[in-house]
Amino acid sequence: MFFRIIAQTRLTDACYSLRYSPHILNQLAIVSCENFGIRGRSTIQLINNHDQLIFNWSDALFDISFVETDPSLIISGCGDGSINLWQLNNTNSLPLLSLREHQREVWCVHWSESRSNDTLLSTSADGTIKLWNFNSSPMVYKTLLGHESVVYEARWHPRQSGLIASVSADCSLRLFDIKQSSNIVNPRAHPTEILCLDWSKYDDHLLITGACDNRLRLWDIRMITNAITIFEGHEAAIRRIKFDPHRRDRLASTGYDGQLKLWNLNSTNIHTERICKDFIYGLDWNLFEQDKLAIGAWDRIVRLCEIISM
Questions:
Q1: Distance between CA 254 and CA 283 in Å, rounded?
Q2: Which SS3 state, helix, strand or coil, does residue 1 take?
Q3: Which H helix or E strand runs over 8?
Q4: Phi, psi at residue 37, to the nearest 5°?
Q5: Residue 152 backbone class (left: φ over 0; alpha: ψ -120 to 50; beta: rest)
Q6: What are the beta bridge partners of residue 180?
Q7: Which of 49, 172, 228, 301 has its CA 20 to 30 A from that of 23?
Q8: What 3-state class would DSSP assign to 63?
Q9: Angle at 130 between CA 149 and CA 165, to 5 degrees
């Protein structure tokens, strides 16, 4: 085994997403859904060492994001097409705001990591990406079109303000440059639905995608017609991929095969461990401590892990 489990948190329902806080050491936000998100309530749990804060919601929640400019706020994406803004230091269990602009489920929410771009994006099963500024009116200031099906994930570039990458059930990878009003597309980045992506934290031109063809593809955005590298090894669809924020050459992936895989961009070595027999939807690296990551699965367990080799 290339890692050890430091701690485990048992959930009441299946984990759909989790995120480490960019503000507070070891603070982790977890979203879990009743009946695997098909119908019923959901829960947001914030854990930090032995402390825990819980919010309940009447509909499914599929994703969560910390607000980069305010450590007391988080955003969630909801099954009814709304986004919810939550105050962490408020004992009231209701959100500060609940805003519905999408026509179907919100699959991804991501607050820009660039300090020059204080903006949220949300993606939906309605095929759109919406950009939000909570200091403006209306709060949705742009809707990005182009995808022909569910937009599973989109991510702001960590350094280039205004650049967004998105992936969809329509098999395409798109790059939106908000400042230049440009839209670059690879209409067939994978032969199947693309479920996830992530930007390199060190190389401005690299991003990775994962799909239902069980493969990861590494792209140079200066020429997205062909992947640089194709990574094979998963036995089912890849649901989450994350570049290591502390190492240039390492990334992690999880999926419907219940496996955690660590990949090295400079070698063919793959470290694999079967975590459970269920789908793994939650994956994130600890932003403050090296070699530590969190994994959340449909077996209702969140595992905090430390890599001990590789």
A1: 7
A2: coil
A3: strand 3-10
A4: 85, 0
A5: alpha
A6: none
A7: 301
A8: strand
A9: 70
Q: Which residues pair with 306 in a beta bridge?
A: 4, 292
User: Strands of 129-132's sheet, edge to edge?
Assistant: 106-111, 120-124, 129-132, 140-144
The domain spanning residue 128 has which CATH number?
Answer: 2.130.10.10
Place of tokens 């400079």: 266
Task: Tell whether pTM > 0.85.
Answer: yes
CA distances from 51 to 39, 45, 75, 115, 305 (A): 29, 10, 20, 29, 18
Containing structural domain, residue 263 = 3-307
Burial per residue of 102-119, b for 16 or more beta-carbon CB atoms within 10 angstroms, e otherwise? beebbbbbbbbbbeebeb
Quick count: other Cβ atoms within 10 Å of Cβ 180?
9
Q: Which amino acid is at 238?
A: I
DSSP 244: -
Q: Retrieve residue 203's tokens.
A: 């190389």
What's the token pair of residue 90? 């408020």
What is the identity of the amino acid at 264? N
Q: Is the pLDDT of residue 2 over 90?
A: no
Token duo for residue 144: 């990005």
Distance CA 1, CA 159 (A): 35
Encode 12-48 in three state secondary structure: CCEEEEEEECCCCCCEEEEEEEHHHHCCCCEEEEEEE
Distance CA 149, CA 84 (A): 23
pLDDT in tens, 167-183: 999 999 999 999 888 89
Number of domains the chain contains: 1
Structure tokens at 81: 């097409």
With cut-offs at 50, 70 and 90, classify the pLDDT of residue 91: low
pLDDT digits (tens, 9 = 90+) for 206-242: 999 999 999 999 999 999 999 999 999 999 999 999 9
| DSSP 8-state secondary structure symbol assigned to residue 268 | S
